[in-house]
Here is the input.
Amino acid sequence: MSSLLVTGGAGFIGANFVHYWLRQHPDDRVVVLDALTYAGNLASLASASGNPAYRFVQGDIRDTTLVGSLLEKEAIDTIVHFAAESHVDRSISSPDAFIQTNMVGTYSLLEAARSHWLGGTAAGEHRFHHVSTDEVYGALGVEDPAFTEHTAYAPNSPYSASKAGSDHLVRAYHHTYGLQVTTSNCSNNYGPYQFPEKLIPLMIVNALDGKPMPVYGDGSNIRDWLYVEDHVRGIDMVIKQGAVGETYNIGGNEEHANLDIVSRLCASIDEIFAADDGLAGRFPHAPAASGTATSSLITLVKDRPGHDWRYAVDASRIQAELGFSPAHDFNSGLRNTVAWMLANEDWWRAILDDSYRSWIEDQYEKR
Ligand code: NAD
Ligand code: DAU
Here is the structure.
């Protein structure tokens, strides 16, 4: 039996991880530590709340005393560190929170872990798993090979620079102090519980509400996409079987240009509306409700400053060494995501209040 501290468990990937872990490892204890920033949402954890193996604590990862007492009282042997500021656009307009949470917060968590596992009475097997991103490797051109674990770091945004800094700290705590760490660097995730500021959920809610679907620049930027359930399964494999001190890239082998993704989503929403009469009543502002193509909402807008052109992940290490491969391809993952958004309108409606909408619109105006 293991006792996990999951930081950022009320966010998108963290919540998926918590549900996955409670399902797959019912004998383990899962303690979530989350500050509940704008991106944290207890509704994403609602179905775990009656489970005696689960506990939620609202708090900041920079609170080393709080983290120390949780490690002690809950006899934590594994930290899974998701907590972060995660949205690139926000890091461009307001970098401060990114430095605070991603760098200072990770440092603070590492200090608490070092003091508890290496300096106190709890010495023994432990694991600090750090969840990171492929963005630390920078941007690729069309012919460049995909990022491997040996690609030099070249972060381009305040977000990716702050994640790169946190990766280096995690590495240093292993090298210098012997903290038992692993790190995973994953590509773009999508799926249930993703905050609708990220490309895929934002496009779905705008399509359903008949709002413009803003595609940055000419829409040619490429990302590698992984369904979130595959990511959390990959993290499980790294925690259970990964070598201490090592890093593993996780990817979907699904490179797609933004405009292709948005066009695919539009076509799929048109088809779903055509097959289900009830949707026009639920979403009267959607073009698809009146038989108009959803793609009529696609609007090319000013580009993101410093916009990385392409990411691609070489995930051959985790495949060869740990046996990981994605279970979902992009088509099935997108279908599941659209279906989840249609079935969970209450979840995203609660987020789309006026202040959030005006924040998004303000971002476009500032460019
Ligand atoms: P998210 O923004 O949806 O969630 C982040 C969570 O962290 C929120 O619940 C928030 O309340 C919490 N948090 C923020 N600051 C905190 C603090 N100081 N103390 C405690 N909690 C705090 O993020 P996500 O998309 O779920 O990403 C999770 C992790 O995975 C991040 O580290 C991110 O860098 C990494 N990652 C994300 C993706 C992706 O596509 N979303 C891909 C690769 C890696
Ligand atoms: O690569 C992993 C990273 O993926 C994670 O580390 C980040 O936390 C996560 O946010 C994501 O970063 P991106 O910047 O790639 O994701 P985002 O959804 O913001 O944008 C995806 C692409 O779509 C990117 O090229 C910008 C573009 N885009 C985004 C938005 C929100 C648009 O064209 N229009 C939009 O409105």
